[in-house]
Amino acid sequence: MNNTSLLAVIAVLLMGIFTIFLLQYNEETPEERISNSMSNVMDSVAHEIQEDSGRG
Question: What pTM does this model have?
Fold first, then answer.
């Protein structure tokens, strides 16, 4: 294997590792998912209360 091929393999491996790192970094943690769910529920309840009181 010559130097150019070796460098190409190393570059592909580094790009793969970087891609995996970015995917894991952007993924929500379980705590963030729970927080977002609670926020959505609270928004829904507030919206329903406003509709029932005639303000929505």
Answer: 0.50
